[in-house]
Design a protein that fits this description.
This protein is about 35% helix and about 15% strand. The protein is an alpha/beta fold. The chain has 2 domains: about 240 residues, Peroxisomal Thiolase, Chain A, domain 1; about 150 residues, Thiolase/Chalcone synthase (Peroxisomal Thiolase, Chain A, domain 1, 3-Layer(aba) Sandwich), CATH 3.40.47.10. The strands form 3 sheets. It has a 10-stranded mixed sheet, sandwiched between helices. The protein has a two-stranded antiparallel sheet with strand order 2-3. Strands 11-12 form a two-stranded antiparallel sheet. A hairpin with a 3-residue loop joins strand 13 and strand 14. Helix 12 packs across helix 13.
């Protein structure tokens, strides 16, 4: 007996062609700019966002600087009544999503809403809200804890709040994969569109971990730079004297659409998301595999997914956080995949974390946006603070000054604790 005409068979699923996915909207709030335009201009100019911490009294901490979002006032974008439901990480994500959706000129019909979803990740969630609730319990008693504490803390509520505001009725959830979070969110969102399960996805990452627990915890791990004398020079990926990352915060969100839908409505297209790779070092809770083999697999997977050869990549936006072990492991991974070209400085590789600091869950998303803008403008942001390049890192790290390049494909890396790796490829259309 033949299957009913409305039933999708396994053969149908296997034969269904994958759809192309494009970026039609971008939004970002970072330590160097309160929107995409100001962020991009600051990165191209080589501006650092590092400064003394203002979000709490850090005078007793060994590390007293970070890359904060400057002058953040959520009341300019979000109704005051709604703010009581939100931790800072959700505020940043909601506003970055507003920017991306406005940038995409996205208007959804009721039918569109059911084919539109949201995946926005966070690494640590609502640290500030947790710390505030703990103080309330100690000082005033448990009966004074706000009923909004748990909704504010939940990692998936950034995506949930965005879905509610914009009536995105498709999949809505959170990725949490340490510093690869934002890249995983965008890669997974693209897969929903590619296989035909959604037409539009709002995706990205967010973080707000400049708090006593966040700084104190990373400080205890000796993961943070201690160059207190000049915070702007502290984040120095690839430099011989790098001593740890600078904690940052922010959010990056993109609007992804099927190419067919974007073309049909005449949308501006920044780039096509052509490749996504994900792997695990399966090695250590916080240290990368020294040989770079795990991140190399992620990059190779992304290249295969994009259907391109390694020599077609014109620029890599590196994960490179400014830690001694991490930058070296990523360099080895890049050299495994790109060979002599990388080892002899023939492939530009820069780290914008030298300016933004490490935005944790937001990093992969913001850096994917930077990669798309590099394609769009044919311009590569520099790595600042490279005074003495580590001789064990033979890469062309685009030191100090932005560079004009003819770019067709760009690779963006994001790696995290637990050995989790994600790589994305964006291409010109």
């Amino acid at each position: 007996m033949n299957a009913p005409t409305d039933q999708v068979t396994d053969t149908d699923r296997r034969s269904r062609p994958l759809r192309r996915v494009v970026i039609t909207g971008i939004g970002a709030i970072t330590p160097v700019g309160e929107d995409v335009r100001s962020t991009w201009e600051a990165l191209v100019a080589g501006t650092s966002g590092a400064a003394p911490i203002t979000l709490f009294d850090a005078s007793d901490f060994a590390v007293r600087f970070a890359c904060e979002v400057k002058g953040w006032d959520p009341g300019r974008y979000i109704r005051k009544k709604r703010l009581k439901e939100l931790d800072r990480f959700s505020e940043l994500a909601i506003v970055a999503a507003q920017m991306a959706i406005k940038d995409a000129e996205l208007i959804l019909s009721e039918e569109d809403q059911e084919r539109a979803g949201c995946i926005v990740g966070v690494t640590l969630g609502g640290l500030d809200t947790i710390e505030g609730a703990s103080r309330t319990i100690r000082e005033k008693g448990s009966s004074k804890v706000s009923p909004y504490v748990i909704p504010a803390v939940c990692g998936n509520l950034a995506a949930g709040q965005i879905s509610i505001e914009h009536q995105l009725k498709g999949p809505s959830f959170c990725t949490t994969s340490a510093c690869a979070t934002g890249a995983h969110a965008i890669g997974e969102a693209a897969e929903w569109i590619r296989r035909g399960s959604a037409d539009i996805m709002v995706a990205g990452g967010t973080e707000s971990a400049v708090s006593p627990v966040g700084i104190g915890g990373f400080q205890a791990m000796r993961a943070l730079s201690r160059r207190d004398g000049d915070p702007r020079a502290a984040s120095r990926p690839f430099d011989r004297d790098r001593d740890g990352f600078v904690c940052g915060e922010g959010a990056g969100v993109v609007v992804l659409e099927s190419e067919e839908r974007a073309r049909k409505r005449g949308a501006r297209i920044y780039a096509e998301l052509t490749g996504y790779g994900a792997s695990s070092d399966a090695f250590h809770i916080s240290q990368p595999a020294e040989d770079g083999e795990g991140c190399a697999r992620s990059m190779r997977m992304a290249l295969r997914d994009a259907g391109i050869d390694a020599d077609e990549v014109g620029y890599i936006n590196a994960h490179a956080t400014s830690t001694p072990a991490g930058d070296l492991a990523e360099t080895r991974g890049i050299c495994i995949v790109f060979g002599e070209r990388a080892r002899h400085g023939g492939l530009p590789v820069s780290s914008t974390k030298s300016m933004t600091g490490h935005m944790l869950g937001a990093a992969g998303a913001v850096e994917l946006i930077v990669s798309a803008l590099a394609l769009h403008h044919q311009l590569v942001p520099p790595t600042i603070n490279v005074e003495h390049q580590d001789p064990a890192i033979p890469l062309d790290v685009v030191p100090r000054v932005a560079r004009e390049l003819r770019l067709r494909h760009v690779l963006s890396n994001a790696f995290g604790f637990g050995g989790t790796n994600a790589s994305l490829v964006v291409s010109r259309v």
